[in-house]
Amino acid sequence: RLMQIEKDYDRLLWAWKGWHDECGNKIRPVYLPYIDLLNKNVKENGYHDLAQYWIKGYGIGNVTKFESIIDQLLKNIMPLYEQLHAYVRGRLCSKYENRFDCNGPIPAHILGNMWAQTWHDRLDDVIPYPDAPLINITKVLI
User: Fold this and answer.
1) Residue 10: what pLDDT?
2) How many Cα atoms sit within 13 Å of 75 on the Cβ side?
3) Is the distance from CB of 103 to CB of 110 less than 8 angstroms?
4) pLDDT score of 61 more than 80
5) Which residues are annotated as a binding site?
6) How confident is the model at residue 15 (pLDDT cuts 50, 70, 90)?
């Protein structure tokens, strides 16, 4: 929860680095055998490997075809993602007064999530028009 609510650059770095140093590196010796066990299990259940098992719900049995589809989707959205990333990076660079390279990657520890997977906890820091009401586009999307 600290990563979601904390805004101080140094405290975020301390928490992120501490967690990764204490957990991330130490779990590797346990994680790799775990993946081997998962692969063994899915093979015993008729799948080539864990990747094939994971994609079964998408109706595409071929991992290579699935990867090709994902690659094309990423290629299609990459221009928008790059613009969004640059905008967020610029806003965060201003907020943190150039504490990181404003032309490089956004440091993971300032994105509000231990794995930098989601950015919504930094919405207040990057929203372009903070006084405007948020728009709910759910009805348009369904």
Assistant:
1) 97
2) 6
3) no
4) no
5) 58
6) very high
Question: What φ, ψ does residue 3 adopt, rounded to 5°?
Answer: -65, -30
Tell me the pLDDT tens digit for each residue of 16-32.
Answer: 999 988 887 788 899 99
Q: Which residues are within 8 A (CB) of 61 and not within 5 positions of it... i.e. 6 or more apart?
A: 52, 55
- Report how far residue 35's alpha carbon sits from residue 28's, in angstroms, rounded to the nearest whole number: 11
Judge contact between 92 and 110, C-beta under 8 A: yes
Tell me the binding residues for chloride.
Answer: 58
Helices assigned H by DSSP within 1-142:
2-5, 9-19, 25-44, 50-54, 63-95, 123-126, 138-141
The first and second tokens of residue 70, run together, are: 């994902």
pLDDT at 109: 96
What would the pLDDT profile of 46-56 be if each residue is shown by its tens digit? Answer: 999 999 999 99
CA distance 73 to 141: 18
Please check whether residue 88 is in contact with residue 106, taking contact to mean a CB–CB distance below 8 angstroms.
yes
CA dist list (Å): 5 to 42, 121, 123: 39, 7, 12
